[in-house]
Each structure stands twice: as structure tokens, then as C-alpha cells.
Amino acid sequence: HNIENQMIGPAKAEIAKAVGAEDMKKLMAFHAKFKELPGIKEYLAGRPKKFGAPGSYASKMKNDGKGIHCCTASPGSYKDVSPEGGAPLGSKLIHMTLKVGEQDEPHEHVKHYMYIIKGGKLSITGAPFPPGVTNELEMKTGMGLIVPPGAHQVKNTGNTDVEILFLEVSEKKGETPEGHVTPQETDPGHYKTLAEDDDWMVVKMDMKVGEEDHPHSHRDHIVYMLDGGEITIWPGKEKGEKKAVVPITPGMVVPVPVGYHIVANSGNKPISAVYFERKS
């Protein structure tokens, strides 16, 4: 039990640092064989899932989540939904689902930008609050948030499952189209900024059947479709023969190149999407 906790728990990185890469390979090989010993495989299958079960050495370890990514700490609750080839500028698009009563494992984030797909009540220990401090927050559906870097642990203390989309960003900068004009400027009835700072912004798009926007441009951004249907995209500043007709489904992630385009709802029902775009 203790060997398993050490080799998959937060102590793994410290062990690797202490013994070196070659010996760590030997330890991991031993661990793999150890798990297949008669009786051990069955025991591990029924062991407590969380680290620090009573009586184990790991229960005496402090796991503050530092250096542990959410997808590694709680893979059942956090999924990297970045498109093939990755999200723009080294960022990561993460989808989080936390059911009623569930609590994730401590983990650490870089700065990230959030959109609340399905709201609820969350208890957060740690960032954005001081270490060890717990606060309960009401996350409202449709909110956009900017969360500073830090380690924390989250529990769903409400009576509804919570679903959140967020983009973890890097400090990389991209290109800005010549004469850049945002869709919030050209079509404020279709595009609304939910959260922004000097670096990135969270924007919601809503478009009824048959509607289309005016020519506009984007910096690096990534789009997450909230509804299904169909959109048509014309590249450039004018509608020409070249166009892309794109069937869309809820949860579809669409990487869109930097530059100008025109978008129309060519389907048979209203569509909504949220996107994260570099602002500077």
C-alpha cells in the first residue's frame, strides 16, 4: 500500500529528484512487477482511491497540490480537450465536471480564464484565497472569470453538478491582423465580452437562424461550441466563392486562424459558442 502511494502520489517527483533518472527507471520497473504479484493486484483494485488512507505513510505527507496539474490529480473530473496540435500559443483547454458532493485532489494552475457551462456552489480551499483558507462561491451559469495562478482543492457543495471550461495560458504573444477590428465592435448584438484583462478575454457568441456578422478579425483564439447546428465561414473581408460549411455539435472545439472572416448561422436552430482570445 505504501509503495503504491509513493509511486503514484505527490512524492514521486521528490523520489526522482533524489535518486536520479536511471535509478528511478529501476524503481518504476520494480513497481510495475510489484503490482502484478499474487494478492497485490486484487488488493490495489479495492484500495481507497484517495492518497493518504489511514495508517499509510502517505497519510503523513502534506499534499498541497503544488506542481500537480488538475488532469493528473483528478483525471475523472478534468479533461484536456485541446485540439490535435494543441491550443493557441502553448495554452491548454480544460473541461471540468464536478458532481454533487465530489471533491478533487489538490492541484496547481497557471493563470486561467473560465466559462461556467453549468453553475452551482463550490467550496475552494487555497487559490485565489490564501493557502489553507476555504471559501464557498456561487458559480452562475454563463459567467466568465479570470483566476490567478496557485494551488487549491475544490469541492461541489451545492445540489447541482458543475461544468466549467477554462483555458490555461502561457506568456507567449502572437500576431495581430492589420487594421484589427473585433466582432464586439462590428456586431455587439452577437458578441459579448464576459471577462477580460490586458492579456486574454472570454467572449460569448449568440446567433439566430439565418443571421450573419460583419467582416471582423481575431488574434489567436479557440472556440468551444455550446450548441449543435451549422455555420458557414468566409475567409477575408468579403464574401466570395471560397467558404467553409461546418456542421457543429455541442462540445466541439474549433481552432480558428488569426485574421479576418465572416460567420453565418446556416443551420436550422440558434447557436451559441464561447471563445478565448488573446487580447494583446
Tell me what the structure shows.
This protein has 280 residues and is α+β, with helices and mostly antiparallel strands. It is 16% helix and 37% strand. It has 6 helices and 18 strands. The strands form 4 sheets. A 5-stranded antiparallel β-sheet has the order 1-2-9-4-7. Strand 10 and strand 11 (200-207) form a beta hairpin. The radius of gyration is 22 Å and the shape is elongated. 26% of the residues are buried. Residues 50-62 have low confidence and may be disordered.
List key phrases describing it.
280 residues, alpha+beta, five-stranded antiparallel β-sheet, elongated, 16% helix
Compute the number of helices: 6
Largest sheet: 5 strands, antiparallel
Rg over CA atoms: 22 Å
Strand order of the largest sheet: 1-2-9-4-7
What structural category characterises the helix and strand content? alpha+beta
Tell me the helix content. 10-25%
C-alpha termini separation: 50 Å
From the spread of the alpha carbons, the general shape counts as elongated
Task: Calculate the mean pLDDT score and round it.
Answer: 88
Q: Give the number of DSSP strands.
A: 18
Summarize the helix and strand pattern as letters. Answer: HHHHHEEEEEEEEEHEEEEEEEEE
What share of the residues does DSSP label as strand, in percent?
A: 35-45%
Flag low-confidence runs: 50-62
Question: Helix and strand layout, with pairings?
Answer:
Blueprint: H1 2-8, H2 11-19, H3 21-34, H4 40-45, H5 70-73, E1 78-80, E2 92-98, E3 107-109, E4 112-118, E5 120-126, E6 134-139, E7 144-147, E8 150-156, E9 162-168, H6 183-186, E10 191-196, E11 200-207, E12 216-218, E13 221-225, E14 229-235, E15 244-248, E16 253-256, E17 259-265, E18 271-278
Antiparallel strand pairs: 1-2, 2-9, 3-8, 4-7, 4-9, 5-6, 5-8, 10-11, 11-18, 12-17, 13-16, 13-18, 14-15, 14-17
Helix pairs in contact: 2-3
